[in-house]
Amino acid sequence: MFIATRVAGLEALDEFLPHAGSAYARDRNHDLGASRRAVSGLSPYLRHRLVTEREVVGAVLERHTLGAAEKFVQEVFWRTYWKGWLEQNPEVWRRYRRDVDRVADEGVPAGYDEAVAGRTGIDAMDAWVRELVDTGYLHNHARMWFASIWIFTLGLPWHLGADFFLRHLLDGDAASNTLSWRWVAGLQTAGKTYLATAENISRFTDGRFSPAGLATTARALDEEPLPPRTPVEPADVVGAPRSRVGLLLHDEDLEPESLLAERPGLVARVTATAVVADPGARSPREASAAVVSFTREAVDDAARRTPDSDGRPARTLPDAGSDTVVDWATSEGLDTVLSPYAPVGPAQERLATVRRALSAEGIDLVTVRRRWDGEAWPSASRGFFPFRGRIPELVRQL
Ligand SMILES: Cc1cc2nc3c(=O)[nH]c(=O)nc-3n(C[C@H](O)[C@H](O)[C@H](O)COP(=O)(O)OP(=O)(O)OC[C@H]3O[C@@H](n4cnc5c(N)ncnc54)[C@H](O)[C@@H]3O)c2cc1C
Question: Which of 29, 43, 129 to mutate to test the pocket of ligand 1 (most atoms within 8 A of CB)?
Fold first, then answer.
């Protein structure tokens, strides 16, 4: 259903454009099942930056005024906001990873296996499990209901639900996923939970589901206080020109043309390009076959779109290990590897290891952050509402 190419993403954008104004504001909360007409379905493309936030918002605003498309533009900025927030609170990701790792060692709690097999007896939950596993996608409202029922009706640990999503969603993303689950659980906005009700589910699924026996209260989870937030770290400064520069693309950003266009001086210096992804790093458990194949196709697509200065297609590296990256860099005789900045999450962890391994060979790793992220992330220091107030200004700037 989702074809992992930039062309397919741009076609999906084009098809959705007429609906991005008042129709989206009116209908977006309706989960109409597989037909999915009310929402864009762009998240797998945005997640991997096969298509960028800037071009989605740009195309929408060529067609609609900001007033008419305000809701849609705000939703795109939710992705940016979550990334910027997690960037300033990386401890949240570290704790999430630690908890998922620990449960993987200790075994899963009672009820988990039935829940992920779609055997809870709650018809809606069981159908959403099947939809998620079969398609790699769930409507936003279904994700909210699912997370709420998982936590408050089934009494399962939120981080295991988040892990299940991350392993199956084609758009599985460290920031949007972890922080949305925390929001439902009452951790993200401390004390404020999201309670799914049968009435709301029935109304917004056009009566397809009306589950009985759902929790009627949702007591917020609690946690150790978080350390003070850390300001967004500056991306690497691109230093003096060096002789042989390679570009290393990864699954957080597979659109190099617009990335390099922001730094025109760099393009001429790139002599080799490689693309790498590691969907397995999403979880200590296996990522779904659909996620693995979407990511692999997305990487191949980026490689085809990114010939180097001699016209050679980019190399697709067989794995994301440091040794593999170092072998590529040394075989190309590189002294600098440029890479899109990776936000907090598995790719950032991986790049930190790669940086050390390259450095041991005298090769610099330089990360390049898009203006979109650089301008917006620092404003994601508090709740979404103050951030939302900056959207018109950000749209003008970006
Ligand atoms: C529990 C839970 C887990 C989630 N996990 C993920 C995840 O792993 N990856 C992910 O990309 N999104 C996640 N979301 C956010 C949201 O559900 C999806 O981005 C959205 O459903 C994607 O469908 P769409 O492209 O048709 O959205 P549209 O409604 O067409 O929105 C357009 C774009 O805006 C962004 N967007 C919309 N809603 C949100 C939102 N609530 N938060 C962040 N960005 C948003 C997405 O980039 C999306 O493609 C999660 C939400 C919840 C409640």
Answer: 43
